[in-house]
Amino acid sequence: MNDILPIILAILAALVVIGGLIPVLLKTRRNITKYPGTRDANDPVEPVPGGGGTLVEDRPAVIPGRQAPGEAGLEGLETAEVPDDAAGLETIAVETPLPVAGRLTRLRERLVRSNNILGKGLLALLSSDKIDEDVWDEVEETLLLADLGTEPTMQLVDALRERVKVLGTRTPEQVKALLREELIKLVDPTMDRSLRTERHADKPSVMMVVGVNGVGKTTTVGKLARVLVAEDKDVLLGAADTFRAAAAEQLATWGQRVGVPTVKSDVDGADPASVAYEAVKAGIDQEVDVVMIDTAGRLQNKVGLMDELGKVKRVIEKLAEVDEVLLVLDATTGQNGLNQARVFSEVVNITGIVLTKLDGTAKGGIVVAIQKTLGVPVKLIGLGEGADDLAPFDAEGFVDALLN
Hints:
Rossmann fold; alpha/beta; nine-stranded mixed beta sheet; Four Helix Bundle (Hemerythrin (Met), subunit A); about 10% strand; 13 helices; single chain
């Protein structure tokens, strides 16, 4: 009997351990079955097991007049589990984004009210009784301080010199008119600043948003989702920033505020390319108009991270063409922002720039400098922290705001 007792106890202990593992194994099996794994840029289209983590979708709120998630076909995605005490949690209210048309007007008014030295400084200098070499030196310095860049500065100064010489007398109205014309030429109203958000025949438009840490990239994705919802687009967000712990939850919250679903990973440090792939796949399956992929805030001097950004794009392109790659830049960073833009353009084909913090209008010349450097238009600008403080960039409106 004494010999049998240890055996019985060992069997009982094993049964307890196995009983505890069964629910975990079942849950893991369910997750792997729904989202089988990671895809590398060179892998076949068929998924391979492991590595990417389980992807979940925050169930979106329903906007009045829009389809409920089930009606739109979103029931195919696994929904995040709701904790037992969820009744005590705060519910995120669904908001109605402001119409896009009114945003540029409001932002222009804010730009006019701000203390900008670019337009006002130039007007004061060019309205001087006598414009000598000292004045032209000050004009040049003002433009350089506004981050216009050396080449555009020389171009503008040469054009102003010639026109002032021909003009002779200079009333304030004349000075303002010629300055407006020359600044508009530099900002270039002929560039195509439209966003490619039209759904293709059988696939959504796909947009990647890239940029370094701290420029407001995830916030920009959320604000742009509001812009698209205001234009009556069906949008799906992909949280491929898997390195910053709060990024996915932050993005999901932005989406919930306007009834937009978010595909994200429930595993810290999951493969960003896998998350992006699953988001685009879900967008195709659910026939949405636009899929927006938020990527990690990559430092331009981290070669491995930049290579991974290229990988994310290549993996997405196994499913659908990437229609837009928007680079988010802080307008106040000056030359550093230009360096960032150059490096990102070497890794992915940048199609447009989003300039945040443009209310620091002493740096308004960065618009010209970036466009000259990359040959890529500024498509969106942000002025402020409000949810609807993102608007399409308009060359003439921008210049008029600087000069008023």
